[in-house]
User: Fold this.
Amino acid sequence: MKKDRSKLNRIENRIFMVLLRFSVILLLAIVIALLLYLVLRGLFKGANIKNGFNINLEFLTTLTNNGGKTGGILGIIINTFFLITLVVLIASPIGVASAVYLSIYAKEGRFREFVKSFIEVLSGIPSIIFGLFGMLLFVGVFNLGYSLISGVLTLVLMILPTIIVASENAITSVDKSLIEASIGLGATWSETTFKVVLKAARSGIISGIILALGRAMGETAALIYTVGSKTEIATSLTSSSRPLSMHIYLGINEGQSLDKAFALSLVLIVMVLIINSISKKLLKCGDKK
Amino acid sequence: MSLFEIKNLNVYYGAHHALKDVNMNIEANTITALIGPSGCGKSTFLRCLDRMNDLIPGVKVEGSVMFEGKDIYKDEDTLELRHRVGMVFQKANPFPMSIYDNVLYGVRLHYKLTKDEASRIVEESLKKASLWNEVKDRLKKSALGLSGGQQQRLCIARTLAVNPSVVLMDEPTSALDPISTRSIEDLMRELKKDYTIVIVTHNMAEAARISDRTAFFYIDERKRGFLVEEGATSEVFFSPKDKRTEDYIQGRFS
Assistant:
């Protein structure tokens, strides 16, 4: 007997749609609640508009005093900026170069598979372990001290896998026929890599770098034992320097008000969002050309 | 002396013997069509002529391919070879850049150009590929906005821009509609004056329409491709020497 599937089809579709919608709404609700809470608590003292603001222009544009107890956070913001700029400048070329090697130059075989699984393992290591490793290697063995550069190098190690995996995926999804066309016109492999492959894979690679950058900006555990805690603007690579994430962590540790922690968190999130949207804009402008 | 002289060519992909004992000459300023069933090694053969097979891991080529009297598998200058022997692929594969930059991509690898020279080469190449009138007002726009047929003609223009003496075409019209196909076929006849063309095609009618010479490849019981016969197109189509050629062509026509 032929089954009557039309009713089944209707009911099934309806249940399925309800479940799908529910998941999306749940996700939206959580994100919105989180952001709303953060914005309220970050902006207003005790999350109440009558108590006045946590953040004002003065807070953002004056230097920190008293180890963070009074004053603004300008120095901290600048330190954060130094930190992630250096991390991106160092990690991106190494990460993209590794991805190019793995996806274009390395012969298929055990070595490549070994390196790939190695990178996967690396991306799964908890950040506190990078922190401890950075403390032993950069702070200790290389004698760089608790400093900007120790923090930068530790974060570079931590985010490299993210950049490599994203770049590799972007590169391997470049149409093979473009590579053939380039080689067929008498280009060398390196010309093909720079002029065609990296160009075609650019948006995927940059998304990977932005993702990594977001992680680096919010990272604390990898920095506790490496970057130092001075609230002044770093004057050299070996200055101890405190970025925003560390400022939040240390503030809570030292028993400062939660209001301040939320205000700082809000600043951090806004910074991440601004950097994301700027890089996306840049990416779009580049694509139009 | 023929432009290409191929002697005892054998190609292996790993353990698979893909092409067996091919002997063939290709004359200058002719269109040679390579026909045969899928897997018969005609694309493999085509890709031996400019060493594009080198890109495939585990490939091994034996025998000799003489181009203008030089064995291209002994002479290591593959960049110069691919400069002289251009290739157009089955799928139109313009680079994700402007039409202008696409045409100049290959030229810029080999020559340093002034702005005037560059514009002249772009115009000439696009005219040769009969695409100039359609794109002359949007040279700086992305090539990806062109239609499939236009993209394929752009790829031909890009190949012609480096001024090769041979153009290899791997089923260049198989993904195109009949009108675009027709315009590319007309183009090939036009190009024959200045270039030598070798084309792989599954379309018998196309081979009959455009080629001077036809080479028929077939597969033996061990899945090795080999050359059955090669000759003037009219002979291969209307009085083939080999029974297999006759069966294949008749099967395709009737």
Chain B has one domain: 4-253. Chain B touches chain A at residues 50, 52, 55, 57, 79-83, 86-87, 89, 91, 93, 95-97, 105-106, 109-110, 155, 158-159, 162 (CB under 8 Å). The radius of gyration of chain B is 18 Å. The longest strand of chain B covers residues 16-26.
